[in-house]
Amino acid sequence: MSPLLQREPAQPLVAAPTPALAEEAEGLLPAIDAQQLWFRVRLHEWSSLVVVPAGAGTSATEVASKLGEAGRLLSEGPVTVLHAESMELGAIADLVVELSHRPKVGKSGPDQQRAIISIAPVLTNPLGTGIAQSADGALLCVELQKTTLADAKATLDLVGRERFVGSVLLRPRKG
């Protein structure tokens, strides 16, 4: 006899999650925001995606890390994350060349290698512009109550509006 048919009528089909179970599941999967963002950026074809902060004082490091974590768990192929905010000129030049020669990948498929790169704001560090323009796509990070509309527009113009696959709104940092 089926175990589902043997249960008591008042017994729930699925046990209610306990706080310990919820914490355990949280540790296994990235936050829901990161998962949703991963599936949104996957709608576009790219093998390299640059996460670009729109304003001075905004960092894309955490977004890139969380997106990479989600990608590693939810993707068919390897996903690497590179933080290029403080790279030296020679390393940036090498990265631009590597990105320029990297084949673009489709929306899905086994063994597709993807790279997610965070850069410093291009308004304060123009070297990131070359990285962003060499990648297949870019993701704009806007910090609420901090990034100005003028900074966001200027960032879009410097990198190229057509390169952006979307944007992320970040909550203001406390402290």
Plain-language structure description:
With 175 residues, the chain is α/β, with parallel strands linked by helices. The chain has a single domain, classed as Rossmann fold (3-Layer(aba) Sandwich). The chain has helices spanning 3-6, 19-28, 32-41, 61-74, 89-101, 127-134, 149-159, and strands at 48-53, 79-83, 114-118, 137-143, 164-170. A five-stranded parallel β-sheet has the order 2-3-1-4-5, sandwiched between helices. Helix 5 runs parallel beside helix 6 (127-134). It is globular and about 40 Å long. The model is unreliable at 1-26 (pLDDT under 50).
Main beta sheet, described?
A: 5 strands, parallel
CATH homologous group name: P-loop containing nucleotide triphosphate hydrolases
Number of helices: 7
Strand residue percentage? 15-25%
Shape: globular
Compute the number of strand runs. Answer: 5
CATH class: Alpha Beta
User: What is the number of domains?
Assistant: 1
Unreliable sequence segments? 1-26
CATH architecture: 3-Layer(aba) Sandwich
Strand order of the largest sheet: 2-3-1-4-5
**Helix and strand element order:** HHHEHEHEHEHE
Rounded radius of gyration (Å): 20 Å
| Average pLDDT reading | 82
SSE blueprint:
Layout lengths: L2 H4 L12 H10 L3 H10 L6 E6 L7 H14 L4 E5 L5 H13 L12 E5 L8 H8 L2 E7 L5 H11 L4 E7 L5
Parallel strand pairs: 1-3, 1-4, 2-3, 4-5
Helix pairs in contact: 3-4, 5-6
Keywords:
175 residues, alpha/beta, Rossmann fold, 7 helices, 5 strands, globular, disordered N terminus
